[in-house]
Amino acid sequence: MITQSDMKRYGWTIVAVLLLSILCPHTILQAQVMQAPKSPASPRPTEQYRPNFHFTPPAHWMNDPNGLVFLDGTFHLFYQHYPEGVVWGPMHWGHATSSDMFHWEDQPIALYPDSLGMIFSGSAVYDEKNTSGLGKNGKGPLVAMFTYHNMPLEKSGGEAFQYQGIAYSNDQGKTWNKYASNPVIPTPKGARDFRDPKVIWDAKKQRWVVALAVKDHVEFWTAPDLIHWTYQSSFGANLGAHGGVWECPDLFALPIQGSKKQKWVLLVSINPGGPNGGSATQYFVGDFDGKDFKLDPAFATQLQREQAVWLDWGRDNYAGVTFSNFAGAKGERLFLGWMSNWDYAQVVPTGTWRSAMTLPRSLSLKKVGADWRVRGVPGPTLQMRDKQYLSVGPTALETPLNLNALTGIRPDAMELVLEFELPDDPTCKVGVELRNSLGERYQIGYDVGAKRFFSDRTQAGKNDFSKDFANKVSTGPRVVKDRILKMHLYFDTASCELFADNGLFQMTEIYFPSQNFNAVQVFSTGKTAVLRKLEAFGVKQ
Ligand code: FRU
């Protein structure tokens, strides 16, 4: 209850926040981090394909997000980084920080390879109770757990070349010390692929749990102190998508939307084996008792039908994991993925750097009919909104709506909120098309007859760098039947992210027009769909 004295002390902010939490739960996540950034974003050179609002390394190679952790108002993004080249090489952990997930400030490289190996992917936690004893002056440290990859050992034909190490920081992530007695988990006998530790705190059992990707399954290990680890269980060898190697797991509880209960979600990236080729991330819904992860019975049935359940149907959202020590007001998890695909990541036509991260996304869990769906909506991105260029009400889309002519909006820094009323016509497709003066075009939309979303970059510009890049149109199924279709889209210089049906469908794809796209239109083919709503915003730069 809000009292009068509360009102005096906190003013209208408290009322606004409470109202927002009732009307729009995801906004709270945004409200928590919508403070002014502590420091300006580190500038990036003006180069072709440099994103306007997605994180890229200052230079050179980047892949997976690592060590995502929130501490004292700061989001830490570590990432797989090779600071001497634009292709994958000896891995380091690059580092950037942000107070709003939008303005990122570069930090010195956090972890360098050493005599035990390169520093592969992993996670970071705040060891608040100093269980590790690695803290200082009564304060717990940040502890990063990562995989050492020992290349000479691999090359000499040995098997035990991946093992887990830890490092700690007592100055809020500024500097890191490797633990003196690494590795903390040596390679178990026969395990060649043994990597990407994601650590969580089990509050019930008062111990740490780590999920590790082990070739074709996930293993759970536990430790009282982040140092002495014991194997507990394995999951997944015969479930979900296989064929590629399992990588980068993440385990977290999510409240069930509209209920007081929660379920556990296990994310598992797989490469290759994605639904549209190459790398992608699948998930499992179940229960975790601190030892075993067991599939929810409804999810088991769903899995039999769908074979694998995908987080994002586009080709460019891989190795994504969630932030430690941070949850939205309703328990949502904040996720970040690598916006590329191992099929072509090392040959995309960017100059001095390679790869960007996705936008942060807020994940929640919803039952749709008998099925479980992890929903993903843009995370704290409201503060990115610039000018609102256009808002149109219901209009029949007899001819494409050309946003440029109307507004002058830039298709390389743009947010669109669209609502279509779909006609009863299997030949109808609705969507958005970007174009440039060379006639190159990118299309993203929904095919009413096929009941599938699509992303078509086959004519979107440069694609001769890889035979796998634009060999086909990516598609994915709609999981609801509503006549009203909502599409929320973010377009940057070289990427599109679609959140449809309030986040029940996500699709992320990159493209490389020879010249920046400069025209955008909303279209409907076949029998005309009604555009019930269109809001177009610029994105601040
Ligand atoms: C996923 C991955 C991880 C590994 C890292 C190496 O993209 O292959 O499994 O730790 O990249 O850079």
Rg (CA only): 23 Å
Counting DSSP H or I runs of 4 or more residues, the number of helices is 6
Oligomer: single chain
The proportion of residues forming helix, as a percent range, comes to under 10%
Distance between the termini: 40 Å
Task: Write out the CATH superfamily name of the largest domain.
Answer: Glycosyl hydrolase domain, family 43
Supply the CATH class of the largest domain: Mainly Beta
* CATH architecture tag of the largest domain: 5 Propeller
| Biggest beta sheet attributes | 7 strands, antiparallel
What does this 3D model show about the protein?
By secondary structure, the chain is mainly β. The chain folds into 2 domains: 196 residues, Exo-inulinase, domain 1 (Jelly Rolls, Sandwich), CATH 2.60.120.560; 319 residues, Tachylectin-2, Chain A (5 Propeller). The chain is 9% helix and 43% strand. It has 6 helices and 34 strands. Strands 22, 23, 25, 30, 31, 32 and 34 form a 7-stranded antiparallel beta sheet that branches. The protein has a 6-stranded antiparallel beta sheet with strand order 24-33-26-27-28-29. The chain has a 5-stranded mixed beta sheet with strand order 4-3-2-1-19, with no helix packed on it. Helix 2 crosses helix 3. The N terminus is likely disordered. The structure holds beta-D-fructofuranose (FRU). Beta-D-fructofuranose binds next to strand 1, strand 5, strand 9 and strand 13.
